[in-house]
Amino acid sequence: MVGPSNARLIPILALAILVAHVIAVAIGETVLTLSQWSQAFADPLSGPAVVLWQVRAPRAVCALVVGAALGLAGAVMQGLLRNPLAEPGVLGVSATAALAAASAIVLGLAVVPGAVEISALLGAAGAGALLILFASHVRSPEALILFGVALSSFAGAATALIFNLSPSPIASAEVMSWLLGSVQNRSWIDVAWIVPSLVLAGWLAHLSAPGLRMLALGDETAATSGLSMGHLRLLALMASVIAAGAAVAVAGVIGFVGLAAPHLVRTLVRGDPGRLLVPSAMAGGLILVLADLLARITPTDQELKLGVFTALVGAPLFGLIAWRAAREWRS
Q1: Whole-angstrom Cα distance, residue 35 to residue 53?
Q2: What phi and psi, each to the nearest 5 degrees, are found at residue 147?
Q3: Taking a C-beta distance cutoff of 8 angstroms, is the pair 148, 90 a contact?
Q4: 49: which residues sit within 8 A by CB, 6+ positions away?
Q5: What is the dihedral of CA 260, 265, 270, 276, to 10 degrees?
Q6: Model confidence over 241-286: pLDDT tens digits?
């Protein structure tokens, strides 16, 4: 997944991520003095140290890992479906994971540590099983997209029904907060939840990279390549499902990051779907760290939810990409 272009791009993205993290940890609602900064480094049990290393730092790292998972899922989906508008929400994985998480909250399982996260992962796994079953019988990328849209619509409607019938206003508020997406109040435990899933998804995506390259050359070329395209498609689908499901499990529904990240770096890797994976993950992490920082420092009475903020910025971008894609299709 690392090529000549990536050898320059990846260090640049890594430096940008490091700078963004330093800023995200340094800036917050509580302004620290120089003496408090010194205390934070000298005494790990002091108040400033708790603010920096137990509140801001895990939040920033969580945003990075969630964004990386969404960026990776978006790159894999766009390569698998050969569609520039594909992103984790297209195939219904995010919506199904959100449905499972909302069900767990309404059933009162939120008091059990990890229950909501596990429910979201199981929901994503269920969607993945349906998608894999469908893909094993229907090879057309267009048909898979339509099935994913139908699955997403059904899961969204079921989530709205759960929200509507929720007997508790508190549970309704928790469901709404989950659906809006956020990394607020996340801890190192949440980081530990998603990192293994991201590593597994990255490994599966790496194994599927040759298939994504062949698909970019067309179905006929892929069919004559000698590669087991069915197996490689399965690996790609599993990678995107695991990455998107883990992101939803930790941060709720956050849209447009998986769409935007691959487009920001695609031209820099000359459109190679295999070399796009790592830069897309890094770009997705960088986008979400910056978006969370902006959501925190925006002067509002209540902190903006991260999913709302990314939607406000991402929706115009989605429209621009759709317009450009439509012009290419017409030509």
Answers
A1: 16
A2: -65, -40
A3: yes
A4: 39, 40, 41, 43
A5: -80
A6: 899 989 988 998 898 898 888 988 888 887 788 889 999 999 999 9
Q: What is the pLDDT of residue 91?
A: 79
Give the contacts of 190 (CB within 8 A, at least 6 positions apart): 58, 62, 183, 250
- Identify which has the larger pLDDT, 145 or 222: 145
Our measurement of the distance from residue 240's CA atom to the centroid of its chain's CA atoms, rounded to an integer in Å, reads: 9
For residues 78 and 141, the answer to whether their CB atoms sit within 8 Å is: no
Domain map of the chain by residue range? 61-330
Locate 1 and state its tokens: 């997944």
Reference 242, options 100, 115, 76, 84; nearest CA is: 76
CATH 1.20.140.10, domain 61-330, yes or no: no
Q: What is the mean pLDDT of the chain?
A: 84
Question: Would you state the structure tokens that stand for residue 76, as one six-digit string?
Answer: 């894999």
